[in-house]
Amino acid sequence: MTVLAKDSRQTIPPTMSTEALIPGRRSKKPRGKGPNQKSAYVFLLPWFIGMLFTIIPFFASLYLSFTDYNLLEAPNWIGLDNFKEMMTDSRLASSLEVTFVYTFVSVPISLMAALAVALVLNQGIRGLPIYRSVFYLPSLLGGSVAIVMLWRYIFGYEGIVNKALAVVGIQGPSWVSDPDFALNTLIVLNVWTFGAPMVIFLAGLRQVPTMYYEAASIDGASAIRKFFSITLPLMSPIIFFNLIMQLIGSFQTFTQGYVMSNGTGGPADSTLFYNLYLYQKGFTEFEMGYASAMAWLLLLIIGVFTAINFVAAKFWVFYDN
Amino acid sequence: MMTTPTLIRNIREKMKSQEQYKEQVTGTPGKRFTRHLVLCIVGVVMLYPLLWMLSSSVKPSADIFSDPGLWPANWDFTNYVQGWTALNQPFHVYIINSMIIVILSIVGNIFSCALAAYAFARMNFTGRKLFFALMLGTLMLPGHVLLVPQYIIFSELGWLNTYLPLIVPNFLATNAFFIFLMVQFMKSLPSELDDAAVIDGCGPFQTFWRVILPLCVPAMATTAIFTFIATWNEFFGPLLYIQSQDLYTVPLALRAFMDSEGQSMWGPMFAMSVVSLAPIIGFFIAGQKYLISGIATTGLK
Questions:
Q1: Do B144 and A298 touch (CB under 8 A)?
Q2: Of A108, B71, B166, B260, which is the most exposed, with the fewest CB atoms less than 10 Å away?
Q3: What is the SS3 assignment for A286?
Q4: Is residue A100 part of a domain?
Q5: For the whole model, what pTM was predicted?
Q6: Is B71 a member of any domain?
Q7: Which of B124, B126, B136 comes nearest A4 by C-beta?
Q8: Per the domain annotation, does B78 fall within a domain?
Q9: When comparing pLDDT for A48 and A209, which is higher?
Q10: Which of A234, A241, A213 is closest to A319 using CA atoms?
């Protein structure tokens, strides 16, 4: 959150400079307070109403997490019972494990793939727009029901993955119905969508001034040295941004698990993502108090990981102001 | 002092000149060849699943797994005919349902987010920093935290099994990502524009409507395309709020194919999957300039 807020102050699509348009005048902050005050709130009116639909549910769900609400009867205050139950809920534990494994395997792999491909594309290559489009397209489709269903067939017993393996003499398992492999197929699916962070990396690489590389070349730096001493430090804020967004996104995975298992989270809970279990608890078993408590645990987990990242960022993210 | 229309024209020209970007090709021929080879292999592997689905959709069901080639040995378009009528309703009903939600969501997002973004980007008022921080906070908030109370509110309003829970929030600027995108864009427009508009006699609403908004077409296009893709793909919201089969959206309808699983349904299912992905790919090809610049600016700030 802070990183966004901080950066937004120095905001500037670097590509547009207003000075070039109007010679002799520098942009200064206009907009004195006063006559515009009231109309500003009018502009914000829809947003204010929308915020009510955010803030009220935010606190209502905190309250409901301490109750046994089930949609039919009025909620009863049960203190920390939901949270105590969560400690001993083995499905909750396994849903956390599924979500963590998915996140901590697929996010680093897809970020590395994104950076690697962006580096190759940034070297100056003919047909860049075509390559960029091809790599970016899957990230628009990855969350759609059609693609997850397609994945079930690609990784099925008779699917093309096993067909390809058969060529080299390996008989693959039925990936999607084997609890040991089902989650891996979804990790592959998530890595397949590396195009979105790749586009962001590519735009970032464009902004690294070429004079740094020229100076390094004169000093006799190798390509690897240039990568670690110039590219990586200058790209670190963008890597950090991508890391945070990818972590938050993948902690909230739902559709992939739901479609892969037709809503069950199977086989043997191996695709029971946290949000899928939350949905089952809240909207098939109608334990809405419990589901609210689960949502707050997720918020806490995401908050802790984001905070850890922000603390760790002090040691590796380089802000060149 | 330049007049407002002249300023607008200058900015338009400047925007246009930035789109023209010539690629510099570097490296020895050998290096260039290796680069292309690696990228082509990665590209083919990534596109293979999509091409396989497209080819399976025009194969007879019996051939889908026995004929692994991408070019069908036997062409058969009956999958499309069967898929169209396989479910409770003909497939165009689901497409129309999805289109209703998509179009209204686009209108809502553009309208409400542009209004909020204008206030944040170009006006000064008490609480601006606080509200802006709050807006960015909602960007990171996991949606499931609000899920149960929002469901209760919508059910109290009698909105269950209607499209209202899927559409109305878009008119209330609840999508902070788009506000942020437009704020970024509006801040890049010179402040002299507002001054010129004021001198020409515009109030804040006229400045917004006649000066700023027409210049924000690229940001609005980005918003429209992102909204289209996100809403067209959206699965969780409709799953939660829509029960009647005749109100199903395309993703819900596709999922219903899984209930009637069996070898004979694979072909029709792939055919309808192709139908469901075609608009996304079409919009992507038509608007990729806006998509890529949009995603790049939000990441860079």
A1: yes
A2: B71
A3: coil
A4: yes
A5: 0.86
A6: no
A7: B136
A8: no
A9: A48
A10: A234
